[in-house]
Specification:
By secondary structure, this protein is α/β, with parallel strands linked by helices. It folds into two domains: 247 residues, Alpha-Beta Barrel (TIM Barrel); 142 residues, Beta Barrel (Lyase, Ornithine Decarboxylase, Chain A, domain 1), CATH 2.40.37.10. Helix content is 31%, strand content 23%. Helix 8 links the parallel strand 8 and strand 9. Helix 2 packs across helix 9, helix 5 crosses helix 6 and helix 7 packs parallel to helix 8. It is globular and about 70 Å long. Bound molecules: pyridoxal-5'-phosphate.
């Protein structure tokens, strides 16, 4: 870490190839009895080199925009192994996905189904869809990331779902062959999965009684990650609840899809930042770092906890585990904040860490998912570098942005701007 921080500079995200592979294989072996298609959620960590590691590990991709599909393809993922969700797919994005040969549309509304079917007919390309159903289950997570309760914008509610499927059944252009669930993230217990799977199976059975066979059940993502040591169920724990509900069905031909993002990428990444200044103010001690919410929005946006620790501390300060409350003497409470002109710009408040000083470097743990992908350029901050570690070597897989990158799109003439309007599809 010290070497990467010194050679690449901060802020930077550092990902571990071995950990990415390890999490993929844990999920694959835990769910092996269901022979699932595992589709990595690109929005959790979309760096092309990270995606390449995952493609090589044998997973497909879950995308939520045309650009994410392009990333998946550029990383070498066969589009037939991609599933495409998202409530606002545009005609251009749908057309691009169809031309690419997308494996499955996860359809979020009736209008969207009509748009997909019309586009497919126009292009003369048949496709498959699954209906995203909102099972009205409380995933007991932050309200911004609860996606399967009645008030959420995602999917179609259960009451409408059966009629919807009956209505579009037999459409020659988009064959609706499954149910898609994604109820929120992170979900720290198995119960919400059980509830929503049982509701989906009841729907599948009701339709089957009408002669409509749905052969695909996409369970979405949402498995937790260990932001604190031991906080989240393991892949094996989730599987021990989910596998028995579906094993028999799989033997009878049901295809299961999983869309893990956080549970693969979060623990595979850290964010390295440097302390620019420290200061005492009132009864607070601030560690002012070279990045905050611009690099990692989660603490500010979701009240999320990330374990933070200096990377070059003495042996006396090796933390016993990653926890909010540590029993160690010599720690001091800090507000670990970023440089932005915004009070919400923090990585942690009142956090006990070893005393730090100017130029010390801090590692923000479990930052591999929803870190870089939610980073912003607020205050004209340049996006951080990204580094991939493999064995005992590392390489920069995204250059740190510079001033010219920030203003490049403002310097171009109107001709290029006009050409860029249809760009998502390329
Ligand atoms: C975000 C998302 C996921 C991934 O969720 P994680 O919590 O990162 O596993 C999966 N499916 C869909 C449809 C999503 O929007």
């Amino acid at each position: 870490m010290e070497r990467i921080a010194r050679e690449v500079g901060t802020p930077c995200f550092v990902y571990s190839t071995a950990t990415l592979q390890e999490h993929c294989s844990r999920i694959r072996s835990a769910f092996a009895p269901l022979l699932p298609s595992i589709c990595f959620s690109v929005k959790s960590c979309s760096n092309l080199s990270v995606l390449r590691v995952l493609v090589e590990a044998g997973v497909g991709m879950d995308v939520v925009s045309g650009h994410e599909l392009r990333r998946a393809m550029e990383a070498g993922c066969d589009p037939s192994r991609c599933v495409y969700a998202g409530v606002g797919k545009t005609d251009l994005e749908i057309e691009f996905a169809l031309r690419s040969g997308i494996g499955l549309f996860n359809v979020e509304s009736e209008q969207e189904f009509d748009a997909i079917a019309a586009c497919a007919e126009r292009l003369n390309i048949r496709c498959h869809g699954a209906l995203r159903v909102n099972p009205d289950v409380d995933p007991k997570t932050h309200r911004y990331t609860s996606t399967g309760n009645r008030e959420s914008k995602f999917g179609v509610d259960l009451e409408r779902a059966a009629d919807f499927i009956r209505k579009v059944h037999g459409n020659p252009w988009c064959s609706l062959r499954g149910i898609h669930l994604h109820i929120g993230s992170p979900i720290y217990s198995c119960e919400p999965y059980t509830q929503s799977i049982l509701k989906a199976l009841a729907l599948i059975d009701a339709l089957c009684a009408d002669g409509i066979v749905l052969d695909t059940l996409d369970l979405g993502g949402g498995f937790g990650a260990d932001y604190e040591t031991g906080q989240s169920p393991s892949a094996a724990d989730y599987a021990s609840t989910i596998v028995p509900l579906l094993e028999e069905r799989v033997r009878n031909g049901l295809r299961v899809i999983l869309e893990p993002g956080r549970s693969i990428a979060a623990n595979a990444g850290v964010l390295l930042v440097s302390v620019v200044y420290t200061k005492e103010s009132g009864d607070r001690t601030f560690a002012i770092c070279d990045a905050g919410m611009n690099a990692l929005l989660r603490p500010s946006h979701y009240d999320a906890f990330h374990f933070i620790w200096p990377i070059d501390v003495s042996a006396a300060f090796v933390p016993p585990s990653r926890r909010a409350k540590l029993e160690m003497s010599g720690l001091k409470l800090h507000d670990i904040v970023g440089p932005l002109c915004e009070t919400g710009d923090f990585l942690a408040l009142e956090r006990a860490i070893p005393p730090v000083n100017r130029h010390d470097r801090l590692a923000v743990f479990t930052a591999g998912a929803y870190g870089m992908t939610m980073a912003s350029r607020y205050n004209s901050s340049a996006l951080p570098a990204e580094v991939l570690v493999e064995g005992d070597t590392f390489r920069v897989v995204r250059l740190r942005e510079c001033y010219d990158d920030l203003v490049a799109h403002e310097r171009v003439g109107s001709e290029r701007c006009a050409a860029a309007i249809t760009e998502p599809q390329g």
